[in-house]
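Section 3.1 - Work completed
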Amino acid sequence: MPTAPHPQNTDELYQALQENDRRPYGRTRTVTAEELVDTADQFAEPRPLAHALLALQKAYNYGSEPRKSPVVFARLLTLFDEQPDVFDERLRHTLFWRFKWVAHALVALPEIPLASLRQWLTEMRDRYEKAALGLQPYYGQAYQLADHVGEDTDLAYELWAGRPRTQLSDCEACEICGRALHHLTAGDDERALRTWEPVLAGKESCQEEPARSVSYALLPLLRTGGADRARELHLTGYRACRRNPSMSGEVGRHLEFCALTGNEARGLELLAENRNLFDDVESPLDQLGFLTGVEVLLQRTEALGHGGLPAAGYPGRTWTVAGLRAEVRGRADDLAARFDARNGTTAHTDRRRARLDRAPLLDALELTLRSRGLDDVTPAAATAPIPAPAAVPESLPELITRARELEEQAHPDATACWAQLRTLVAAADYAHPDDPAVGPPARLRADLLDDEASRAGHKDEFAASAALYEEAASRYDEAGAPGHAALARAGALLATAQAAPQDAERADGADGAEAKAATLTAAHAALVRLHEETSGLAPFQEARLLRLRTSALGLRLEATRSEEDFAPVFAEADLLLAFATRHDIAGQVSTAHLLRASSYALVGDLPAAVTETDALLDRLKAHGPAWHLPRTLGLRARIRLGLKDAQAAHADLAEAVRLAAEWPADTVDTAGLHGDLARACMHLGRPEEALRHLTRSAELELRHGTRFDAFCTYSNAAQLSLDLGRIEDCIALLDSLLAEPDVAAGELDDRLVAQLRLARARALHAGEDLKAATAEYAALAAESAGWDDDPGSHAMIAAETAVLLAESGEFGRAREAADQALAAHAREPRYEQLSSCLRELARLQAQQQGAEGLADALALLADAGRIADEARTAGYEARGRDLDSALAYEHGRVNAYASEYETALTALDKALTLLGEPEPESHDRDQVGEWAECVRLAAVVEGLYLERPAPALTRLDGAVSRLGVLGHAEEAEPLVSLAASLRDEE
C-alpha cells in the first residue's frame, strides 16, 4: 500500500496525524497510523508518541480490529506509569476513557478467558479509584460483561444505572441505548422505545449513535405498530452504517429487518453492497452479529423457494442463496459455540436461535420507492420471463402452428409462444418435427429471428433490429416463404431508416429534422417498390406492408410537424383502412385509425384527434381486438393532456392500466401508460401518486429489458421525490440503482450514470450530509472535466461543487472549482447557473469571514458581473431572477456582512431600482417577494446598522402600503414586523 513521505519533525508528525484523522476508518487509515507510530518512536519525544498511539488505537477500535487495540493500550499505560507528566489533562482523560475500549475489545475475542476479562475490569476499578475517579464507568463495563455472558444482568444493571454519571461515563446517547436494550431484553418493547426516543429523534448522538440504536429499534417499532417510523429509520440508519466494518452488526440487523418485512429482494441488494464485511470484519463478536442477520435473510429467501438465486458472499467464488446460507450457518454456529464455551453459558446460541426462529412481522412493507420481489432478482443482463398465455399447446407442432396464427393477428400471446419455442430450439436435444404443416427448420428459425427483430425495435435498438430482419429474410428465402421474406425486408428498411436519424438527431435544429425526413422519405419509396415487386402476398402480409408504408410517413410527419407531410400520411392510412376493412383484418383497421389520430395530433388538430379515437374506442369495444383498447385509451389520454383536460386523461389512463393487466406488460406498453399517468397526476397536483406511477413505469421498463429508459424514468422519480422532500427515499432509490451490476461494471451510459450520481449528491446536500455530498460532487467535477463534448454540464457540476465546498468553509477549493466552472462556461455558456453560483460563494464567504473575506467575495461578484454583461450582450433572458438586480442585491448583502453599511445601502437601492415597484398586473409572487426582501434588508441596514430609523420606516411603510393595495399580505408581514421593532427602539 503506497504511503506518504514520513514526517521529518514533530510538527510534521502532528500535521500528518490531523490529516489521517480526516480519513475514513479502514485499512488506509490504520496502516498510516501504524507508520506514524513508527515515525514517532524515532523522535525520542514521549508526547508525540502518546498522540500517535492514541490515534492508532482509535483506528483499530473503529476499524473493527479488537485484537490489536489492547496491545497499543498496554504501551500507552506503560508510558503513563513511567512518565505521567507527559500526559496533560486532555491526554489523561483520553487514557482513562480508553479503558472501556479495551474492555469491549477483550469481550469480542472468544479466546480471551472469562477470568482475564474480569481481571481487566478489576484493573480498571483499581486505576479509577487510585485516580479518585467516579466508578460509574466501571459499573457500566461490568454490566456489559454480565449482559454478554447472560448472567446476573439485573443486579449489574442496577449497580450501573443507579449511579450518577461522571466525566468518563459513556456519552448520553450510548447510555440511553444500553438502558433501552436492557428493557428490550426483558421483553418490554414500549419502555425500550420510550427510553430510546431522544436518540431516535436525533436529540442525542455520537460516533455510533443513532445508527446503533436505530438498528435495534426497528423490530420493536414493528411489533408496536410503528411501521412507518421503522421504514423511515431503516433508510436513515442503514445509510449511516453500510459498508462500515465497525458497524457490521448493525448492517446485519437491517438485513434481518428486510427479511421480516417481505423485502428479501432489498435485503439481497444490501447484502451485495456490504460484501466487503465478509472479509473486513476482524471482530469475532461483530462477525457473529453480522452473520446471524445474513442467515436470517438467506433462510427466509430459501424458504420462499429462491435458494438458487445468486448471493454476494465470501470473496473468491460465486454463491447461491442456499450455498451461502450453509456456509454462514456453519461459521456463525461455531462463533456462538466458542463464546458460550468461554462464558460457560448458552446465551449466544440461544440469542442466535431466537433471531433465526422469528417469524415475519409483516407480509409486505414498502421500504423504498423501488419495491421489488424475489422474482425480479436476476442478473443485470437477463430480463424477466414473459408470462405464458392462458393455454400453450403441449406438442411442438401445435405450439409452432399456434405461434404463427397468433403472430398473424399480432396477438400479444404470440410473444410467450415464441419465447417458449426459442428455449426449446436452443436445447442440445432439439429435434425438428417432421411435419409438412410445420415446414423446415429454416422457417422456424426465421420466425424466431423475426420476433427477435421486432422486440429489438420496440427497445429502439434499430440497428440490431435491421440486422435481425435481414437475417430472417434470408432464412425465409431458404425456407421458400417469399411473402414472409418480403415482410422481413420491409421491417429492415424501416428499422435502418430509424437507426440513421439517431445520428441525425445529434445535428442542430432544422438540419437534424431535414436529414431524418429525407431518410424516411427514401425508406417509404423503397417500401412502395418492395410492395409493388412482391406478388402472391396473403392479405395479412399485404396489410402489414401498407402499415409499414404508413408508419414511415407518420415518422416523417413526427420529425417535421409540417402540414405538407400530413396529407400523404392520411392517404396511406386510408389505403390501409380500406384494405383491412375489405379483408376483415381487425387489428390493422384499428392501427389505421390510430395512425390517423396520431397524425391529427402531430399537426395540432387535437379535437379531430379526439374524435378519431372516440370512434375507434367504440369500434374496439364492439369488434375488438381487445388488446388495442389500452393503447387507444393511452393515445386519447395524451391528446386530452394536450387539451389541458388532465382529469379526463387520468380517467382514460386508469382504465387503460386496468385493461392492460389482462395482457403481457411489454406487449401493450404498460410502462408507458404508467409514465403518462404520472404526467396526468402532476397536472392534477397529485405528485405522490405521480411518484408511484413513475417508479412502476421504471420497474416495468427494467423487466422488459429497456434499461436505459428505465434508469431515465427512475432519475425523474428521484428528482420528484427530492422535490417532495422525501430525501431519504431519493437517496435509497439512487443507491439501489447505482448498485446495479451493469452500472458498477461501467456498462450503462456514463452520462446517465453521472446524472444519477448528481441527483444523489444533491439529495445528500439537501439531507445536510455535506461530507458525503462534497465527495460525490468533487468526483463528478473531476470526471466531467473530460467531457469535451459537453462543457456546459461540467460548468454546472463544478459550480454546484464550489457552493458545497464553500458551505464547508473550504473557500480555496471552492474558488478552484468556480474557476473550472468559468472555464467551461466560456465554451458553453450557463449564465444563470454560474451567476447564481458566484453570488452564493460571495455570500457564504462574507457571511463566514466578515470583513476579512470581503475582497475575495467582491472578486467573485465581479466575475458574476461579467457574466451578467455577457448575458445581456448575447440577448439572453433569465428564466429565474434577473441577473443584474440579483447581483446588486448580493453586493448589498455581502457589504452588510463586512460592516460596509453605506456601500451596502447604495447597492440595495440600486437593486430596488432595477427591480422596480410591483405593479397591479404583477402576478409573479417570486418577483414580488424578491422586491419585498430587498426592501427589508435595506431597512435593516438603514434603520439598525446606520441608525437612521426615520428613513427606514418611511421605506417600510411605503412598501407595506403598496403590497397591501396589491393584495400581497404575506409578503408584507416581515416588513410590518421590522417596522414595529424599529418603532419600539425609537
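Second construct:
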Amino acid sequence: MMKKLLLVAFVLFGTAIMVAQTTITGTVKDVSLGEPIPGANIKVSRKAVGTSTDFDGKFTMTVTDTPPFTIEISSLGYQTKTVEITKNNQVVEVSLTENATSLDEVVISASRTPERVMESPVTIERFDIREIKNTSAPSFYDGLENLKGVDINTSSLTFKSVNTRGFAAFANERFVQLVDGMDNSSPALNFSLGNLLGLSELDVKSVEILPGAASALYGANAFNGIMLMRSKNPFNEQGISAVAKSGLTSQEAAGDNKFYDVSMRMAHTFNDYFAAKATISYLKGEEWHATDYRNTSGVGGTYKAGFRREGDADSAIDYDGVNVYGDEVGTNIRTASGLGIIPDVRVTRTGYNEVDLMSNEARSMKFGGALHFRPLGNDRVEIIWNSKFGRGNTIYQGQNRYNIANFFMEQHKLEVRGKNFFVRGYYTGEDAGDSYDTRFTAINLNRQWKSDKDWFGDYIQTYAGIMLAGNPQGLSEKQMHQAAREVADTGRYLPGTPEFKAAFDKVTSDPDLKTGSKFKDNTQLYHVDGNLNLRDYIDWAEVQVGGSYRQYSLNSFGTIYTDDNGPIDYDEFGVYTQIQKKMMDDRLKLTASARYDKAMNFDGNVSPRLSLAYAAGEMKNHNFRASFQTGFRNPTTQDQYIGLDTGGGTLIGTAEDNLDRFTSAPIDLSPTGALLLGSSTTTYTGRDAYENAFSAKSIEEQTYEKSDFDLVKPEKVTSFEVGYRGAISTGENKLGIDLSAYYNDYRDFISVKNIAVPFYGKVGSTEPSGIPNVTQGELALLALQNGDYAGVGFRTNSTADISSYGLGLGLSTKVLNGFDLGLNYTWSKLDFDQASDPDFEAGFNTPEHKVKLQFGHTSLFENFGFNVNLRWQDEFYWESSFLEGTIEDRTVLDAQVNYSIPSIKSIFKVGGSNLTGKEYLSAPGVGAVGSQYYISWTINN
C-alpha cells in the first residue's frame, strides 16, 4: 500500500499545467527592521493559487485571474495584509508588522473558531513553525516541554508522553492528542505512542494545547487536556523540503551512540482544484538503557534494601530488581517443603537484566500522503483524503516493561470541510508486530531450562542436605543460601549463548503467557464526527452544533483483552452545541457550550462549559477571563475488558460481562490446597475475584477484610479557572503576560483496586466449610497462609475526595534590542483524603514547582540565530503499577545555534539537550535520560 501511494505522489508531482495570464512580482519585509521575510505566503484571495517568498523575501507569482483582484500576504508572527492587483506585471512592495506578543497569534481549538490567543476564553499554549525553527530540543515534539504547564515524561528515546495539570502516566488516558482531527492513540492501548504516528516536523503548521478539561467540545477523555496538531495544506504550503539530522546520544549505561533522523515533504498545487502532498520520515538510534538494579518490594512496590551479585553471599535471597525480570517468581521454601529445618523465608529465582532482553534499538518510519480537491475552485469547500502509516520500535512502561518491536499503525481519513462546517470519518488499525513483555520473557526463559517446581526443589534439597549432614563446612545461613542457589541455577541459559538465543526466540514468538511473552493485536477503530457553524443563518450570536460516533473492535487474541473467542465490539457517541456572543463593543465575550455523550455500557453524561472574557484598555490588550466547565472520562476499553496476567498479578476489567469472560490459566496449589480441592491446580473467574476476595490494604494491616467495590463507571471533574492575558508597553517593546489559576474537583476517579482471591473458602463467612470446627472464612484465611491465592487488580472508581489546583504565569518580551526573553512558572498541588479510600493511589506524578526560561535571538547578525532553554523542577513522588519512588529535582539545559544560507535555501543548526550531562529519570524503572547532541540541515524550496 505504501509503495503504491509513493508512486502516485511522485507521478502527480511530475504533471502540472498552468496557463499564464497575470504575473506579479515583489518583496516582503519586516516593517521595523527592514529585513526580508522568507517563507511569507502570497495567495489570491479565496483561491488556492499562491506562492511563498524566498530567503531574500522575493516572490514571483503567475495566475490565471484577470485584474482587478486581491492578494493576501501573510506570515506566522505577523499581521496579514491585502493588496489590490490592478494590472499585469505589477510590482508589489509589502512591509508586514510583527505581532506585539505571542498573545496576538490566532488559535482555533479553544472555541472551535478562529480567535486571538488574547481573546481565548480558556488557557491555551501554542507552538508553530517559528518555534520549530528556534527550538533547542532535538525534535519539535521534545520542544513542547518548554511550554508553560506542559510536562513530557520520557519512557524511551522515541516514546514521550505529553501531559498537563497532573495525573501523569506513560499510559496517559486522560490526555487526548489529535492530528488533523484524528485521535492518534493506539486503539488497543488507549493512549498515544508519542509521535510514532504523528507529523513530520516539516509538515507541522501549528500545535495547540488546551490544559485542563475540554470535554464540552471534544468529548470523553479530553479530561486533563488536549493537544491538536495541524499539518500544512498543500494548496498553501508548496514545494519540496527536507531535513537531515544526526548526532550522538550519550548515557553512562549505553555509552555514546549515533542517531539519524531524516524527513522529506513534497507538496504541489496543480490548479485551483487539485493539490497533493507526501511526507516520509525515518529515525534510528539507541534507546536509553534501563539499568536500575536496586531491590524492590515487588511489582508496583517501592525500593528496599538489598542486591544480588553472583557468588556474593550477602545477596538478598528474595531479590526483585527494578530492571531485572524473572526474579518476581518466588515461594516460601518452608511452606513449599513442609520441613521444619528449612527457614521460614521467601526465595526468588535468579532473573535476567533488561539489557539482555531488549535490542534497545530505537527506530521509527512514517509516511503520510494527502489528496486535496476543491470542487468550486476556491477554499469554500475542500475534500481531503489523508493516509498515515507508521512502523517502529520503542519501549513502553506500564504494569511491565514492553519491547515494542515492528509495531505498525495506520490511519485513513476522508474529510469534507468548508468555511463553516466539516464532516470527517477515519479508520485506525494497528498490528503489534513482534512486540513482547520483558517480564514474561524472563519468567518463561527460566522455565524453558528448569521448571519452577524443579528449581525450588533443587534449592530446598541442597539446603536441607547441608543441614542434615550437620553443616560440616560450618557455612553461615547466607552461605547455605548461596550454595543452594548455585545448585538450583545449574544449567541456566546465559545471555550470549546459542541456548539462550534459541529459548529467547521461542518465548518471544509465543503469545501464550504460560509459555511465551509475545502480545498480538489487530484492534481497529472507526470514527465519524462533524461540526456546523451557523453564522450564515444566525446573526445575533455565533452558534455551533456537532457530534461524533466511535466504534472499537478489540482483537488482541486474548493477549490483552478477554477476546480469546473473537473480537469485542464497543461503541460510543456524543452531540454538542456552543453559543458565543460578543457585547459591549466586542469587549465582553460570553461562551456557553454543552455536550451529551453515551457509551455502550454506561449512562449518558452531560458536560457544560460557561466562560466570560472581557477585553479592557483602549487597544483591548488586557483580557480577563473566567470559566466553569465539567469534564468526564469514559472507562477505557482496558478498564472494561482487559484480562492481562502481568507476572506480579492479573488486571481484570470490570464491565459486567467481562467478569464472566475472564478465566485464569491453571495455577499450582500448595500440598494442603491440593488435598482440599482434590487437584494440584485450580482456576478462578473474574466473578470469583469480584465476589470473594480480601482487600490488599486489609492484608497489609492484618485485619483481613472482604473487598467491596462497584463496577467501573465514568469519572468526572468540575473545573474552575480564572486568568489574565495582557500586553504592557515597556518603551519600544511590550511585555506579554499570561496568568491563570484553576481548581479541579474530581468524582469517581478511576483507579486500580488491588485484592487477593483465595482459591478456597469464603472471605468473612461464618458458614461451615465441611471441615470440623473450620468456617468458610477461616478456610479463606488458610488459603492466604498457604499462598493459595491470586493477586488481582480491578478497575473501579475511588470514593476518595480528590481535588487539584494550581497556577501558571508566563512572561515574554524583547530585551537588549531584539533578544527574545521568556519566563514561565507552574505550581501544581494535589489534595485528597487518604482515609476515605485507603487502597487508592492518586498517581498525581507531577512536581509542585516548575520554572522554564528561554533566551535567544532569531537574527543576532545576518542569517545567524540562537536559542537557549533552561528547565527546573523540584522532586516529587511517582506512583504507578510498575514501581513507586521519589524522582529527584532536576535542571536541564538545552541550546542551539542556527545559520541560514539563502543561496541554497538552507538552514544549518547545531544543538544539544541536557547539556549539563547530569542524567535523570522521568519515572522509576525507565532508562536514565542522558545528553543528546545534533547537527541538522534543513532545505526549504
